[in-house]
Design a protein that fits this description.
Helix content: under 10%
Strand content: over 45%
C-alpha cells in the first residue's frame, strides 16, 4: 500500500504485519496503533500530536519513526527491540518510553523531548548512536544506560531520584550534558 492512516480517536491493534510506504497515526486528541509481538511495519511511521505507537516484543519498523511535526507523538517500546533506523531524527517525537523490563538497542539517531527508561523491573537502553533530548534523561532505580560504540548524548543524564539509575560507558563517548 501507499499509505495506512489511523484516524483521530481510533485505537487499532494490529495482530499482523503492515506493508505501506507511510503509516500515519493521526492523533489530535488521541489515536493509537499497537503492533503485536514479532510483527513488522515495512515503511516509515509518522505520529501526530496526542497519538501513540506501541511496539510489542520484537515488533519492528523497517523505516524511520518520526513526529508528523517536531515534538509530537509518543512511541512505547515493550519487550526487546533493535533499531537500525532513526527515531525522531526528521521530526523529533514528544516521548519515547521503554516499558518496565524492556531491552532496547539503538543503532540509529534518537531525537525526542523526553525519554523514559522503566520505573520498576530492570530496563536497559543500549545506545550506539546519537541521543538528542530537549529535557534531561532520567533513570529510575533499575534503569541501565549502556553507552557503546559511537554513542553521543546531547542532554543531561540524571537519576530520577538520588542513587537511582546506572550508566555504563563501554566505548569512547561524547557527552554534551551533565552526568548525575
Amino acid at each position: 500500500l501507499f499509505a495506512v492512516n489511523v484516524s483521530n480517536s481510533a485505537n487499532i491493534t494490529a495482530n499482523e504485519s503492515i506493508k505501506a510506504a507511510t503509516v500515519t497515526i493521526c492523533g489530535g486528541t488521541s489515536g493509537s496503533l499497537s503492533l503485536a509481538a514479532a510483527k513488522s511495519i515495512t515503511g516509515d511511521v509518522e505520529i501526530n500530536n496526542g497519538a501513540t505507537l506501541t511496539l510489542n516484543n520484537n515488533a519492528s519498523v523497517s523505516g524511520s519513526i518520526n513526529g508528523v511535526s517536531d515534538g509530537v507523538g509518543t512511541l512505547n517500546l515493550v519487550g526487546s527491540h533493535t533499531f537500525n533506523s532513526t527515531l525522531g531524527a526528521t521530526n523529533a517525537l514528544d516521548l519515547i518510553s521503554l516499558a518496565n523490563g524492556a531491552t532496547v538497542t539503538a543503532n540509529g539517531e534518537i531525537d525526542a523531548n523526553d525519554l523514559t527508561i522503566g520505573n520498576g523491573a530492570l530496563t536497559t537502553l543500549n545506545l550506539n548512536s546519537i541521543l538528542n533530548l530537549t529535557n534531561a534523561l532520567s533513570l529510575s532505580g533499575n534503569a541501565i544506560l549502556n553507552l557503546g560504540l559511537n554513542a553521543e548524548v546531547n542532554s543531561d543524564i540524571q537519576g530520577l531520584a538520588d542513587d537511582e539509575g546506572t550508566v555504563n560507558i563501554n566505548e569512547d563517548f561524547a557527552s554534551n550534558g551533565n552526568l548525575g
